[in-house]
Amino acid sequence: MPTATITPQAFARQALDKLRAQADPERARQVQKYFRETVRSFGIPSPAVRALAAEMYLAIKKDWHYEQALQLCAILFPKPELESKAIAALVLARHKKEFPAALCGQVKEWLAKNYLDNWASVDTFCPQALATLLARYPELLIGIEKWAREPNRWVRRASIVAFLKLVKREEYLGPAYAMAARHFASDDDLVQKAAGWLLREAGKRDMQRLEKFLLQHGPAIPRTTLRYAIERFPEGKRKRLLAATRKKTG
Predict the structure, then answer these.
(1) Which of 3.30.40.10, 1.10.760.10, 1.25.10.90, 3.30.70.330 is the CATH number of 1-98?
(2) Hey, where are the domains in the chain?
(3) DSSP structure class, residue 209
(4) Could you read off the pLDDT of 184-237 as tens digits, one per residue?
(5) CA-CA-CA-CA torsion for 165, 166, 167, 170, nearest 10 degrees?
(6) Domains 1-98 and 100-250 share a fold
(7) Confidence of residue 67 (pLDDT cuts 50, 70, 90)
(8) pLDDT category, 12, cuts 50, 70, 90?
(9) Which of 182, 214, 218 has the alpha carbon at shortest distance from 200?
(10) What does pTM read for this prediction?
(11) Is 166 in contact with 203 (CB distance < 8 Å)?
(12) Furthest C-alpha separation in the chain
């Protein structure tokens, strides 16, 4: 007799029960040290959350499609705990071959509603989801460019981290550098750090191109962004780049 398909609602309940069973209140308090904004956590290490998501996915692997995974996100993303959001993100990522272009708009809506309201949730979900969408539907690049002007900091950060995996491919280096530059006027440290992170990753493919870009934009680059971007350069070159891009005074 066939086993009944687990509904997204039932999956969510089971996931929350399992997370509560593994909760570590003391570790949850320690997690807050890594965030400026207030976050909620069960205090479960990321490898354990990933293992739980993988284990639970096996029960629905044969029956679920993208639509069920999307429903799971609608249920778990609004939950306050980091781990709840991560479970949904990891399950949806398993269905990336089915992603429609319309998911891009849904991701933006989740971000704008602050369902992914911390750097960890954005960085768990968006590099996979948005990178997949941009690679499959290049026409979405124009829309993602506009995210740089959005008032919501999580939308802006997502527009940057979307390129983290794509910069391994030559054709995405130009859009990635352009995206980083769009955020140079930002005074949000989480956006500045993300831009520097993206530039550092882009530099892994072509360090000379990164150096040229940094010298070209010079004082316009926030120092936080610059320090992240130059981490892989030798110490001597890091010092020279810091000096060469410093704002002139007097």
Answers:
(1) 1.25.10.90
(2) 1-98, 100-250
(3) H
(4) 999 999 999 999 999 999 999 999 999 999 999 999 999 999 999 999 999 999
(5) 150
(6) yes
(7) very high
(8) very high
(9) 214
(10) 0.91
(11) no
(12) 82
